[in-house]
Design a protein that fits this description.
- The chain is α+β, with helices and mostly antiparallel strands.
- Helices cover about 50% and strands about 10% of the residues.
- It is built from 8 helices and 4 strands.
- Strands 2-1-3-4 form a 4-stranded mixed sheet, covered by helices on one side.
- Helix 1 runs parallel beside helix 3 and helix 1 crosses helix 8.
- The chain is globular, with a radius of gyration of 17 Å.
- About 35% of the residues are buried.
- The model has no long low-confidence stretch (mean pLDDT about 100).
- It binds glutathione (GSH).
- The site of glutathione has 14 residues, from helix 4.
Length: about 210
């Protein structure tokens, strides 16, 4: 049994999407950021970072969205969220999950949370360096998709497409949204057409792309 601690449209989205793709039972617990619930002692016992997502698996709390995506894919091979171990596509599954978690997610985190660097707001030079880092990372993915897409792993959809699309969504109000790159936009369109994406919008009460 799973319990997902989430906040709408945040890093918990990819885990929620994976659970919907799998179709297994799970319980949802909303963490209200407006009430700073992520920093309450009871939540910090589950996730010492005070962030979402946390996924409680058979009573044991785990965090880090990409790790949770990979773990769910492993626990539910029938959902085909990942290519099987030993298959030709397996190295690319690890590679792109880590790329998104490493090259993109932390840059977004700094973009949206200047307080992580002790600032109320970023200085313009830092903001433009973060922007450059995010855009250059997207350019790499766009080139890859144009050559080997339409999905991150090629012809077949996988869980890493959910991760990519969640991250693309976060750029929607940034100076250059990821969907301005053609192959990225096409990937986002495919993922957004999936029943899991539409159901997540209903469950999390999201409206904006
Ligand atoms: N690397 C973590 C990042 C998690 C993260 O930064 N979550 C944000 C929402 S996107 C959060 O919980 N923010 C609340 C806060 O930092 O107070 C992951 O991928 O799970």
């Amino acid at each position: 049994m799973y319990t997902l601690y989430y906040s709408p449209g945040t890093a918990s989205m990819v885990v929620h999407l994976a659970l919907l793709e799998i179709g297994c039972p799970y319980e949802l617990v909303k963490v209200d950021f407006a009430a700073d619930e992520q920093h309450r002692p009871e939540y910090l016992k589950l996730n010492p970072l005070g962030r979402v997502p946390t996924l409680v698996i058979d009573g044991k709390p785990c965090f880090e969205s990409t790790a949770l995506l990979m773990l769910l894919a492993e626990r539910h091979p029938e959902a085909a969220l990942a290519p099987p171990p030993g298959s030709e596509a397996r190295p690319a599954w690890y590679q792109w999950n880590v790329y998104f978690a490493n090259a993109l997610a932390p840059a977004y985190r700094y973009w949206f949370y200047p307080a992580d660097l002790g600032q109320p707001e970023h200085a313009p030079e830092l903001k433009s360096a973060l922007r450059e880092r995010i855009e250059s990372a997207w350019a790499v993915v766009d080139r890859h998709l144009a050559e080997r897409g339409p999905y991150v792993l090629g012809e077949r959809f996988s869980g890493v497409d959910l991760l990519a699309t969640m991250l693309m969504r976060w750029s929607r109000n940034m100076p250059r949204p990821a969907t301005e790159w053609t192959a990225l936009r096409r990937l986002a369109e495919r993922v957004r057409a999936r029943p899991s994406w539409r159901r997540l919008y209903e469950l999390e009460g999201l409206t904006e792309w």
